[in-house]
């Protein structure tokens, strides 16, 4: 399976796309496209990969994705079960860099937004009050048309230009090193790790998936993922553990083994190394945050 170019169908009487996606689960594969993309998750949860960044999404997740930046949204396994009755929904905005003319974003008024677009090559998660305000505009845009819809998009540009509530996702060097010609191996490796990270994945096994020797695979992996295979695998497992820690029906030992770690001590060590706190402290911080939000 290859990284694919995938584009939404655009209406002939519109200069950009606003699309309300509704499916039992998100089925789009690992892909890229020349449009900038703004994705608001309105229902469902799961993993997302933006470039070489692995994260977890849920309702309210808002991400701005740059042109040609590979990405995929993968719902939690329960969504793929026909009997679950669950629904995955998102509002997606697509626009080409030149959709209003080649000189549009060069205007002085768009200087700050042009800087934002440059950073979007890494993918940007928008949070806080900015995310809430943009989410409301995007939901309203579903029922808009004509100039009203364009004005709303410009208001989103303004909010993004001024906001500091942004988190860069992919590493800075990802796009400069990424080659479409290497996408088949990247796709195979990424897909296999996403589906099997809770199991024991050895270097020999993952190298075989990429049809490479272990030595060559390590060099390949470091080039395209900007870290070692083990570090990347641990980051995927820790990210999954963070999600489970927000659910109080499992104890920390269950979470450690359920995330793919063979022993508690290594789980605790790797978790603190990546998050700066122990799993227990992380769970406590989530609990305090929930209490404050409820209050």
Can you describe this structure?
The protein has 295 residues and is an alpha+beta fold. The protein folds into two domains: 165 residues, Jelly Rolls (Sandwich); 116 residues, Orthogonal Bundle (Arc Repressor Mutant, subunit A), CATH 1.10.10.60. It has eleven helices and eleven strands. The strands form three sheets. The protein has a six-stranded antiparallel beta sheet, with helices on one face. The chain is globular, with a radius of gyration of 20 Å.
Largest beta sheet: strand ordering? 2-9-4-7-10-11
What's the CATH topology label of the largest domain?
Jelly Rolls
Residue ranges: pLDDT <50 for 5 or more in a row?
Answer: 289-295
Secondary structure: number of strands: 11
Quick recap:
With 295 residues, the chain is an alpha+beta fold. Helix content is 44%, strand content 18%.
């Amino acid at each position: 399976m290859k990284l694919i170019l995938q584009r939404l169908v655009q209406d002939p009487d519109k200069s950009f796309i606003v699309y309300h996606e509704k499916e039992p689960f998100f089925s789009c594969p690992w892909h890229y496209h020349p449009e900038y993309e703004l994705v608001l998750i309105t229902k469902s949860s799961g993993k997302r990969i933006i470039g070489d960044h692995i994260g977890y999404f849920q309702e309210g997740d808002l991400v701005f994705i740059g042109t040609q930046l590979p990405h995929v949204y993968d719902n939690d396994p329960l969504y793929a079960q026909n009997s679950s009755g669950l629904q995955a929904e998102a509002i997606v905005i697509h626009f080409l860099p030149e959709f209003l003319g080649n000189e549009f974003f060069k205007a002085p008024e768009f200087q700050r937004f042009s800087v934002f677009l440059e950073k979007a090559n890494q993918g940007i998660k928008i949070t806080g009050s900015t995310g809430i305000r943009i989410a409301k505009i995007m939901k309203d845009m579903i029922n808009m048309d004509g100039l009203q819809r364009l004005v709303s998009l410009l208001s989103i540009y303004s909010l993004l230009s001024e906001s500091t509530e942004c988190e860069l996702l992919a590493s800075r060097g990802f796009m400069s090193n990424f080659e479409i010609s290497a996408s088949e191996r990247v796709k195979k490796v990424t897909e296999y790790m996403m589906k099997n990270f809770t199991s024991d994945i050895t270097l020999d096994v993952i190298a075989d998936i990429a049809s490479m020797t272990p030595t060559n695979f390590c060099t390949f992996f470091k080039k395209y993922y900007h870290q070692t295979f083990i570090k990347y695998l641990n980051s995927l497992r820790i990210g999954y553990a963070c999600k489970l820690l927000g659910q109080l029906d499992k104890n920390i030992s269950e979470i450690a083994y359920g995330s793919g770690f063979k022993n508690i001590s290594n789980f605790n060590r790797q978790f603190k190394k990546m998050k700066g706190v122990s799993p227990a402290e992380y769970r406590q911080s989530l609990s305090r945050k929930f209490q404050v939000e409820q209050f």
